[in-house]
Amino acid sequence: MSVFQQSFHVATRGRSTVDVSAEVERMVRQGGIHTGLCHVFCHHTSASLILCENADPQVRRDLEAFMSRLVPDGDPLYGHIDEGPDDMPAHVRMTLTQTGLSLPVSGGRVGLGTWQGIYLWEHRTMPHRRQLTVTVQGE
Amino acid sequence: MSVFQQSFHVATRGRSTVDVSAEVERMVRQGGIHTGLCHVFCHHTSASLILCENADPQVRRDLEAFMSRLVPDGDPLYGHIDEGPDDMPAHVRMTLTQTGLSLPVSGGRVGLGTWQGIYLWEHRTMPHRRQLTVTVQGE
Amino acid sequence: MSVFQQSFHVATRGRSTVDVSAEVERMVRQGGIHTGLCHVFCHHTSASLILCENADPQVRRDLEAFMSRLVPDGDPLYGHIDEGPDDMPAHVRMTLTQTGLSLPVSGGRVGLGTWQGIYLWEHRTMPHRRQLTVTVQGE
User: Fold this and answer.
1) Which element (helix H / strand E) includes B96?
2) Angstroms from B62 CA to nearest CA on chain C
3) Which of A128, B73, B112, C39 could disulfide-pair with B85, CB 3.0 to 4.6 Å?
4) Domains in chain B: ranges and CATH
């Protein structure tokens, strides 16, 4: 068994999702591991990683609509407001989703289902530069 | 260290939970790894994996009741509606729960707590055939 | 590659968060693995593990406020009520957050972002003794 690890950065356009599937797949191929696991990690507390339906972009717009309604910006509930009305909601959205994803590696590729894509979900309204780390372990 | 990986399928009866603990445990024993990690992955975007209290089935009925209220079917919020009133809610439910679970392997067994069971949660109202992949890594 | 695994216990003061970052970091150093993954697992269904902003404690108070509103104690929706008004809400909170966290290990340390801390979130109102297991795999 061996381990391969590499980081990369994603420039987000503010609140929205970015498909990082191809970059993760590229790193798994580079790691040269045939069977094992791939872990993707986001080093931030106001952005998430999600697996999402990859055929209809409306699914991600609907997810955003649901989350905006469940975790509204500017909610008077919060005391942590110095960084703006979208800051604490970003932390809540992150807590309700994932900061890291582990995915099977099979036949040297990421073993996703047909309709699964890997997305970085930026929860802040302003653009940010986000660091992701991919770790692949296996044979 | 070595890696063991195998997939299996679960036939769901539509929206409900299915206990897959025994099947995961069987694969960990088959893999012959004493100490390490076991990863269970669901290759779909409208079903989830959860760890849940395994003593009282009412807990899972209450979880379903909570989720049905939080993410109602037929919500006019959504634009992705071609596959039915339960389709987009299934994607949201998946996003709020887990697609993969990593579990410690100790003494050749899945190191769950006394009251923890592994459940596949089907979020669509119609029965589906779901693929799960178990990956075990360790010594 | 090698694997290191060790459990420890945390005494909680009832519903609140406990920073376990230092203990996890200590175990990663003890494991002596330079590059790989660290997995932290909570063996319970009414407590969670979260990564959270570690600079302003108000963030965790706001998270608690959000969760208390979303998943109120004593909700008449539930049938699983024998263990008190906070029992089923604790299971729901656990389901909406994480039972296990996988984190990159880089340079012999847990590769967290600057503002990420690892917290055990006790969801029951009474103090509990919680078991966590740390598994580190890598080179």
Assistant:
1) helix B87-96
2) 5
3) B73
4) 2-138 (2.60.120.460)
